[in-house]
Amino acid sequence: MTGRDTAERLALYLAHLHAVTGEDPIIEEVEPRDPSDGRVLSLGYRDVPGPGLLTGVTYGLSLSSPGGGVARRHEMVITLRSRDLSWVSVPARAVAALRGISPLDPGRAIGYAQRFVEESAMSSLLLGGPASNLGLVPFSMVPAELGGKGEDALDFVGVYPIYSSEREFAKKNGFKAFWELEWDRFDPLREPIV
Predict the structure, then answer these.
(1) Is the peptide bond before 188 cis (omega within 30 degrees of 0)?
(2) C-beta neighbour count of 182 within 10 angstroms
(3) Three-class DSSP category at 76
(4) Domain ranges of the chain
(5) 186 FRET partner, CA 20 to 30 A, in 66, 122, 167, 178?
(6) CA dist., res. 177 & res. 155, Å (int)
(7) Helices marked H in 2-48 — which ranges?
(8) Using CA of residue 63, residue 40, residue 100, residue 133, what is the dihedral sign?
(9) Whether the predicted pLDDT of 125 surpasses 70
(10) Model's pTM, two decimal places?
(11) Residue 56: its H or E element
């Protein structure tokens, strides 16, 4: 465990997510590339924020320093229409593999060597803002009894599965060029748009 990875911090985070979702998550631990960086958890929710939707939230990315003078730490969140619960661990698997070696910031497209799940040929992720209907907003991981303010501010990065051809388009033409195309960000079974 890192100094930031405490039972109190995790409890505060889970309480915040419960207040937003009204649900308790399905928790799965994902083995990190470097265990000394702290644990990585996948927190999965069925029918959140609505019927037929899955949402997966990470715990573990915010344990590392944001670097570059950035004040906020991130956690990642995915929301999509599927019944395949393996999707909810995709962001945590990305954190476990890339934390500390690749920035996981909005505006980036990252790839994977194989499909994320059996049902879809998607093998890349586009990082942006979280789905607006989730109600996830930046918040402080400092307990209220300590003022609720401090150096442990946290925000959420949205994770959107895409095809490798779409990742290449985003890398060549920029995040905004791909983001502004017409595509269903919540359908992991859609056809590629480029």
Answers:
(1) no
(2) 5
(3) strand
(4) 7-179
(5) 66
(6) 24
(7) 7-21
(8) negative
(9) yes
(10) 0.90
(11) strand 53-59
